Structure formats: C-alpha cells, structure tokens
Please model this.
Amino acid sequence: MPTRPPKPPKPIKPERQPRRMNGFLRFLDGSLSFVFLSFLLVAAVAIWLRHSFDAPGPLGETAAVVIPKGEGALEIAERLEKSNVIADRRVFMLQYYVARLYSGGTGGASVEKASLKAGEFQFPKAASVRQVLDTLVSGRGILQKITIPEGLTSLQIVDRLRAEPGLSGEITTIPPEGSLLPETYRFSRGTSRQDILDQMRTEQGKVLMALWEARDPTLPLKSPEEALTLASIVEKETGRQDERARVAAVFVNRLRKGMRLQSDPTIVYGIVAGQGPLGRPITRSDIDGKTAYNTYHIDGLPPGPICNPGRASLAATLNPPTTQDLFFVADGTGGHVFTSTLKDHNAAVQNWRKIERARQGGATTGAASGSANGDAEPPPAAPKGARVPGLLNASKASGSEAPPPRKKPKEAPPKQ
Model:
C-alpha cells in the first residue's frame, strides 16, 4: 500500500550575529578602505612632490640672485619666482616645509639647519627646486674678496671696509694700531663689516703668537707687543720682500747696541697719528719735532705700532738673519746698500748722491733714508756726545762729514 512521502526537513536558520558585531565590521571595512585610499593619495602626492622637486626649473641660463638679510622664507620664494629661478613659489614653500619637518629633505639637512641663508647665490641653468633649496640652506653663496695691503693704519683699513659695497653694517670703533692682519679675505655679499674686522683681528693674534713662540730667543724684545711694534717699522721701511729680513736685522742690531732707531716712518706717524700719509716731504722741522713716536729723539721702540704689519714682516722681525749691519741707504735701483760701519755708510751715501746728481743733471738732491715719504731736507748733524748716528743721520758728532740725503721714494709702490 502506498505510503505518504516524508516531509522535507526544515531549513536550518543561520545564527543571527549580534547587531553590535555587524556595526564594528562595517566600521572596520570603511576604515580600511579610507586608509587604503589615503595611502594612495599620499603616495600620489609624494610622487608629485618628488617630480616637482627634481624637475628642471625655468632658468634659461645661469643667474645670480641676492638674498638680503632679514627676509623670510615666503619673501625669498617670491624673490626667486620674480627672478625666474623657480616656477611656483607655492611648490618651493611646500618643499621648504617638508625639508624642515624631515631630516634629509635637503641632502641631509636637519630641522635646525634647514633655514635659508642670506647672501649672493648663483643658480645653474634649469636648476630644480631641490638644487635651489640646497644652495640656500647650505649658504654656498658667491664669495667676493677684499685685499688689505700691508702697512696701512687701522683707520685706513676701516675706511677701505666702509667703502666696500658688498659688505653691510657700520664700524663704530677703530681697532688698536697693529691689531689687524693685512690679507685677502673672502666673504658673501651682505657680510657685516664688523665681522671682517673681527676676523682680521683674530688672525693677527694667531699669527703673532705662533711666530712669537718660534722666535729667536736672543732678540732684545720683551713681549709680542714689542715685536709687533718693531715689525710695523720694518713694514714701512721697505716694500721689497728680499730686503725685509735684513732691514729687521739692522733695527735689532741697533736695539742691542742701545742706538736710536732713527726711522722716518715713525716721524710721520707721530705727526699724522695714523690718519694717513703725510702728503709732503719730511722737513728738518719734522725731524726736530719731538713726539712720542719720533725715534730720532726717543730711545728704543715707540709706544706702539705705526701700522698693521703683514705676516712676512712679523716673521722677519722675530727671526732676522745674523748680520753686523747698522745702516742702510738707497742704491739707486729701488733697493738699499747695507753697511756695518759709519765709514762705509758715508761712502754709500756719497755714491747715492752721485747717482742722484746724474739723474737730475747735477742738481742737488734730498732724501736717501728709509722713509717712504719722498725727498726732504737733509737731517741735522748729530749733537756732540750723541750715540752713534742712525739710518738718516750718518754725520759724525763734529759734523765734519756731510749728513747723508734721505732716500728718494721707493721704486716699488709706496706704502700709505
């Protein structure tokens, strides 16, 4: 007998997830999607930034731009855009802030170092933003230079710095005489004049102390300051490098013997007090005039330097050659004849006078001393009882021999 088929089994209903779990999954799914999309966006921006950072810039040829002191990053960006160094200041600013946030953003520059420097900078053709930013952050600007000749006074050096248009700022105090090292100094446009002056003073101190430590221990000099003073006289007495050491030896020998230095440049300094050159020949009244610097009237060294001597004069003064020389006079070629006795010195003076007479057609002549200030009247004879005459006053105490003429101006460019 047929039977009724069994009823189909009831379907198994899935367990319902708690509503709270369903909400969390939806949130998690949305968050992951957002993170993924954000990652894609950041990656795209990073790729764009990298491309814009390294893409060639608009510069058609190498150009220089001056960044004044005190300008902020935005002002600098605007200046670069106007100068056609960069295409868009907004891109530059974005890259600049990235460089400040992440070390290595400008070739390894840290947050502290990622600041834009002032100065004059040269940018190559088609410079990228990275190159421009690296140049400004590193401060690799165009270096200018100023050359300070040996033998200038401190006031003359300050005047030269004041006249240099590439420097900035004021100098309010004239440094002590002799405290500056004449040299060629390099600087970025906008560097402070005072900074250059401070650098010159620091360098002079270093050079002086190094040479003082390596000095001839037998020198009749008690301190670096005395060495500086004597070197300044040597500097003003000759412009020839091959004579500097021998001139220094003459003065050292005279100090050892207690003889007066009798140097014309000290007369000039005593008159003008470092303001500049005398502007005329030395006269008899100048030689007779008593000042603290006139080494015709004072024993030993003057109270301080008469100029700023260079490295070579300092070295010559602190390690002079061993000689017996006590005198020198012009030889007619721009150099000098060095002698150790008054007799030989007078003979050299007479020879110099012959040369001058031949040059001037028999006319009488003046200067043959170590002065760099031109011809002048011959110096007076030494008074009775005076010590052995010096460089200019070679006459005997009795005046029986004519005093030598002082040197004509050196054929090398005279020091001021």
